[in-house]
Amino acid sequence: MTHKNPAPMAVTRLVFSAATRLVNSRGYGLVDKWRHEVLASLLPRRCQFCGSHSADQAICTACAAELPWNYSACPRCARPQNHRGVCADCLAHPPAFGAAWAPFQLQAPVQQRIHAIKYRADFGSARLLARLMARAAPRPLPAQAVLIPVPLHRRRLWQRGYNQSLELARELHRELKLPLQPGWARRLRTTADQIGMDAAARRRNLRNAFAVDARVAGRCVILLDDVMTTGATLHELARACRRAGASEVWAWALARVA
Ligand SMILES: [Zn+2]
Ligand SMILES: [Zn+2]
Fold first, then answer.
1. Where does the record place the Double zinc ribbon domain (predicted)?
2. What is the topology classification, in CATH, of domain 73-256?
3. Measured in angstroms, how far is the CA atom of residue 88 from the centroid of ligand 2?
4. Beta-carbon neighbour count of residue 69 at 10 Å?
């Protein structure tokens, strides 16, 4: 049987394609989120670490307790230590940020998860670890606080396709209702790979590598990186924030190298 009047079909197709275009152009994030939530509600909840059933969490309480939490650390640089107070290095060479905090030490299994986030786009791990980070975050946060992830140079961003620190920052923004301004910091030049460099060489390597928007003036800036090794990157970015007029700068990282 042929359609005597093809007009209604054509109109339906037109409306459908226009609606799809509208959703794709304007509401993609929403559709994506909705699809993620529907899938999550259909799949049985399992702990991402041991595979056991877990009521409503992606990690069971036993595995969460086993993670390498950075309980005792220098308040200025977040380096693990077994005494209270600012460490000798920070007293001798104070970093440009006023406080630092990292909930984890860079050890298994957090280390492997961070590697997967950085090199295999494992955004599930990014969401999980950032959610744990948000729950442990120091409170209250200053009213004027703004979250800025450490930016990648545009060439590195183009190679990798995403900035792992921004992926973590999105989750912290959602969980902590913390204003997120990834566009307020830019990396002006690519820097040499820092593996094997000591703290002084890292600082030299990063000199004037960042530009920060003047809108940070008078605000408490919380910088976010995935890993804090010596703190050189966060120190240099904090210096740029200070130059731009930030009243306070804190450095946050998911994990700290001991
Ligand atoms: Zn578990
Ligand atoms: Zn310190």
1. 39-91
2. Rossmann fold (3.40.50)
3. 7
4. 15
Which ligand ends up closest to the CA of 101?
Answer: 2
Q: How far is the CA of 84 from the centre of ligand 2 (A)?
A: 11
User: What are φ and ψ of residue 100, in 5° steps?
Assistant: -135, 150
121 sits in the region (left: phi over 0; alpha: psi -120 to 50; else beta) called left
- Residues 219-243: tens digit of each pLDDT: 999 999 999 999 999 999 999 999 9
List for the chain the helix, strand, coil content (%; round to 5).
45, 15, 40
Name the residue ranges covered by the structural domains of the chain: 73-256
73 touches 252 (CB < 8 A)? no
Cβ–Cβ under 8 Å, residues 150 and 252: no
Question: How many degrees, rounded to 5, is the angle at CA 104 between CA 98 and CA 106?
Answer: 105
**Rounded to whole angstroms, how far apart are CA atoms 161 and 156?**
8
Distance (angstroms) between ligand 2 centre and the Cα of 239 equals: 17
Per-residue HEC secondary structure of 216-241 comes to: HCCCEEEEEEEEECCCHHHHHHHHHH
